[in-house]
Amino acid sequence: MADELNIQIEKRFPKGEVITVGLELNTRQRPAVTVLFGPSGSGKTTILRCLAGLEQPESGFISFGNESWFDAARGIFLSPQQRRIGYLFQDYALFPHLTVRQNLEYGLARQPRSRRQKRITEMVALFQLSGLESRYPRQLSGGQLQRVALARTVAPEPRLLLLDEPLSALDDPTRSRLRSELRQLLTRVGIPALLVTHDRTEAIALGDWLAVVVQGRIQQVGSVQEVFGRPANHLVASSVGIETVLPGRILAASNGLVTVQLNAATLLAADPGDVEGPEVYVCIRAEEVMLSRTAAGRESARNHLAGTVASVTPEGPLVRVVLECGIPLVALITKPACDELNIQAGDTLTAVVKAISLHLIPRI
Amino acid sequence: MDWIAIGLSVRLSLWTTFILLLVGLPIAYWLTFSKRRWKFLVEALVALPLVLPPTVLGFYILLAIGPKSPVGRFYTETTGWVLPFSFQGLLIASVLYSLPFAVQPFASAFKSVDRRLIEASWCLGVSRLHTFWHLIVPLSQPGLITGMVLSFAHTLGEFGVVLMVGGNLPGITRTVSISIYDEVQALNYEAAAQTSLLLLCISFLVLAVTYGLQRRFSAAWPMS
Questions:
Q1: Burial class (CB in 10 A: 0-12, 13-18, 19+), A127
Q2: What pLDDT does B224 receive?
Q3: Which residues of A touch B114 (CB under 8 A)?
Q4: What gap in Å lies between CA A353 and CA A267, rounded to an integer?
Q5: Does chain A have fewer CB atoms within 10 Å around its N or its C terminus?
Q6: How far is A140 from chain B (nearest CA, A)?
């Protein structure tokens, strides 16, 4: 039923900014959370609003399966009501004069009563809202608000979920807790989703696919690993900021350190404390990888990885070195350092990474 | 005290308020949500009675509904009655005269409804009409009540327009304010004082009750 989403649009603003989007998403692939990632002001939310029918682009088209949502050439513009999408707003936009139950019921008004009741019961169970039905939004905590908002969005059975910075309304500790909860809920709901965020951690934790938006254009689309590991251009590289993002598995934890298995390599990382499951993403910034010719003795809390240099690419005053050491590890070193070590492709080197430089993001 | 005039004024005010609710809601909605460039012209037109002398407004209304005007002729042909110096004519004048007192509070109440709530409603597949009745109207309640009360109170005390369009026919167009004016002209100060006091009390009471209710409303659902 769900199908390909094809967006080719151009949206102009009175002040002269232009947002140009070319994006094709196969929403049948599972799991299917696509993250629109990019710095603030890059046009992510506008893309989402155009998809929802809340803004009208100047030219281009949007199609979902064989349905045309917008086509400037043919004068087609479907209203938000006609698109059957679900939109989760940044601050949730729950109706303040209605109870939780009435909020859930709001989008089901046209359905017969029995069907409506059944759907509300389902939503209350799925989003663990039991006992909150007669409360007003102002009486709910941040986490409860998020669950109610998502439940309300999902209740009318939308074909596509659009989420606009869903965690930005929360304070820091709540945010990291709700991040994994949101991922679980999205997986459980099973509706293809497009999520906007400017937060790297959120992008990695919530997305299966990443579309990087910088300066009003989609710069790169790919899996989380692909985009972080092989940024298509310097704009993507600078906005993602982390060069190595790899799936790993926690083997053991002790003394504030955890042992993580990454393909053939085993690494030590500082225990972030908020990781529950064994599945994680391990993030390493290229600046934090040091390279050395000698296989130095093992010091505590440092990872030493011997490997072969796969590529050496100059980037202005810096040099990007990719070391194949059981995992593809990216290091960013200065040009003098590179010359001193005389690094060539094919060389054998040792990479040194401190345990605290390994950033772990929970993965469900 | 001129109970007939008081009764007539109350009847006129109730009808005016009711009609302004029907007419004012769509105008206010359009003024709030329309993106037309020439919207400001309609805004100015609606606000005109605020600054125009009642006699000027009354004069134009008199011309517009007179037997020689298309409106007046149509009314006479269909009903056999004439509009000037009748209750119906007075009602038309009152509605026009109090239009800004209803439309402006309605529009500012609509404007204060968070735009995202409206968009959230649309994205849930809910039609614009349903959104209006089930979201915008409930959230604008204090502003809607203010608009209605102001229309009522304003009509209750109108004088100039009534004199121009309605004249001074007891039981038909002779409202409280005209009655008070007549008493004063006849040097009948006691009767004028009684009626004036009554009007003052009613006006104050209505306003006090409204503002009191509004405080309770705004305490009932502050934005989460």
A1: buried
A2: 34
A3: 93
A4: 9
A5: N
A6: 9
The structural domain count of chain B equals 1
- Is residue A48 within 8 Å of residue A162, measured between CB atoms? yes
Q: Do B119 and A80 touch (CB under 8 A)?
A: yes
**CB of A279 less than 8 A from some CB of B:** no
* Distance of alpha carbon A138 from alpha carbon B217, whole angstroms: 15
Note whether residue B54 is domain-resident: no
**Cβ of B122 and A145 within 8 Å?**
no
The model's pTM: 0.81
Amino acid identity of B89?
G
**Structural domain for B182, as ranges:** 3-33+84-214
Confidence at residue A298, expressed as pLDDT on a 0 to 100 scale: 59
Contacting residues of B for A123, CB less than 8 Å apart: none
For residue B102, being part of any structural domain is answered with yes
CATH of A4-241, one of 3.40.630.30, 2.60.40.2470, 3.40.250.10, 3.40.50.300: 3.40.50.300
What residues have CB less than 8 Å from A313, skipping those under 6 apart? Answer: A319, A320, A321, A322
Which element (helix H / strand E) includes A280?
strand A279-284
Q: Where are the domains of chain A?
A: 4-241, 245-362
Contacts of A74 (CB under 8 A, 6+ apart): A68
Task: Enumerate residues 103 to 122 of chain A having a beta carbon within 8 A of any beta carbon in chain B.
Answer: 106-107, 109-110
CB-side exposure of A154: number of CA atoms within 13 Å?
Answer: 24
Locate the chain A residue with the closest alpha carbon to B123. Answer: A80
Beta bridge partners of A162: A87, A194
Please tell me the predicted confidence (pLDDT) of residue B223.
43
pLDDT tens readout for residues B26-80 = 999 999 999 899 999 999 999 999 999 999 999 999 999 988 899 889 988 888 8
Contact criterion met (CB < 8 Å) for A80 and B120: no
CATH of domain A245-362: 2.40.50.100
Partner-chain residue, chosen from A87, A97, A156, that has the shortest CB–CB distance to B139: A97
Which A residues in the span 208-237 are in contact with B, Cβ-Cβ below 8 Å?
A: none
Q: Kindly state whether residue B174 falls inside one of the protein's structural domains.
A: yes
Question: What crossing angle do the helices spanning B3-33 and B176-185 adopt, rounded to 10°?
Answer: 130
Q: What CATH number is given to the structural domain containing B98?
A: 1.10.3720.10
Determine, yes or no, domain membership for B99: yes
Can you read off the two tokens belonging to residue A363?
Answer: 């993965």
Query: Any chain B CB within 8 A of the CB of A192?
Result: no
pLDDT digits 0-9 by tens, A40-84 = 888 889 999 999 999 999 999 999 988 999 999 999 999 999 999
